[in-house]
Amino acid sequence: MTLGVFVGDTGRFGLAVAGGAGAVLVLLAGCSGGSGSGELASGKTATATITPANGATSVRPDGPIEVKAAEGTLQNVTVQGKGAVITGRMSADRKTWRSDRTLTPNTSYTVTAQVRRDGKTETVSSTFTTLKPAKTLSIIDVTPNVEGEKVGVGMPIFVRFNRAVTDRAAVERALRVTPEKPVEGAWRWVAPDQVVYRTATYWPAHQRVRFSAQLAGLNAGGGAYGAKDVEETIEIGAAQITKGNINRHHMTVTRDGKKLRTIPFSAGNGTTREYTTTSGVHLLMEKGNPVVMESPGRKPGDPGYYKQKVNYAVRFSNSGEYVHSAPWSVGAQGSANVSHGCINVSPSNAKWYYDIMQRGDVIELTGTDREVEWDNGWSFWQLSFAEWKKGSALS
């Protein structure tokens, strides 16, 4: 397959991919290095200069490719090479063409320019190689990213890197979130190697959200350069929201604003903080059937030790809180709180809830004095959006 970038009358340029049933056009990019006149296909003195110069090595991938016509005007500029999809622009007088994004490290590129003068077209070319950095920055996980999965309207986007990020601002600028139904959002760094995106209000339901990271060739600080670009598509499903009052022992589930079911439950007995179900805005994180629950910080024989297998378990915090089947407490469901902190429901209600659950669905609980911490699981909605944005490197 052959890759080539052409410049048309609009001043934009595209990457032509030849060898199939027809040409495919995508946008392509650039880098920097020493300048030179390049080489004329005819062997005569060139009428244009190309930067980086022909034969240049260890070219920094975060600099531009630039082509200047000394005489005449530029007609076409082609860049052949693997890696990043890049863009560039022709000046209004067609004397200069300049790329406007970075190149893939450790890659060979050939730039070919056609210059029109005195009614004739001449061709100038330059082949160079970008540097092989000692360190590269890569995205090793984007969540959610399960093919075919629909997620809830509260779902954050998690991005994890292969190393701690030195220049967080530069990296954050390279991250893009593009929903079909626009809504404001912002990134927050929760670890040296992890950043999370949250919207100001819940996602509008039933849409696709595109995540892209234009990392290839980006100077990420600390001697690291971005290894490659990343793209993911996230599908937002129905707006499923559960609201429950722990003191009233019932929760109501809605989908797209319509009531689906009211479920009686038994929550934490409240005898200790550990056994008190947290109030606040939670997100449904994962589910399992069955799940083995064991008392934290205790071993067999200790007071309060338990180890219990439960069915249809949907987790909504990192402190061990689930909605799950509890046939042993059906008599208390709807009237008393007797659990160790989970939301106990009947087997039939547990299965129904388990089956409709989407990661990122919202569960809002009230009625206790134990508020869920914003960083307990995915409880990011406990922070106001103004507070959330303070964790951005661009705030």
Automatic annotation (TrEMBL):
Instruction: Please verify whether the record's keywords include Cell wall biogenesis/degradation.
Output: yes
One GO cellular component this record assigns the protein to is:
extracellular region
* Entries under SUPFAM superfamilies matching the protein: L,D-transpeptidase catalytic domain-like
Q: Which Pfam families match?
A: Big_10, YkuD
Q: Which UniProt keywords apply?
A: Acyltransferase, Cell shape, Cell wall biogenesis/degradation, Peptidoglycan synthesis, Transferase
Q: Is Nucleotide-binding there in the keyword field?
A: no
Query: What is the superkingdom listed in this entry's lineage?
Result: Bacteria
Which residues are named in the active-site annotation? 324, 342
**Annotated GO biological process:** cell wall organization; peptidoglycan-protein cross-linking; regulation of cell shape
Provide any one GO MF term from the record: peptidoglycan L,D-transpeptidase activity
Recorded hits in Gene3D superfamilies, A to Z, give: 2.60.40.3710, 2.60.40.3780, L,D-transpeptidase catalytic domain-like
Q: In which pathway does it act?
A: Cell wall biogenesis; peptidoglycan biosynthesis
Domain (L,D-TPase catalytic): residue spans on this chain: 240-366
PANTHER family named among the record's database cross-references: L,D-TRANSPEPTIDASE, L,D-TRANSPEPTIDASE YCIB-RELATED
Q: What is this protein called?
A: L,D-TPase catalytic domain-containing protein
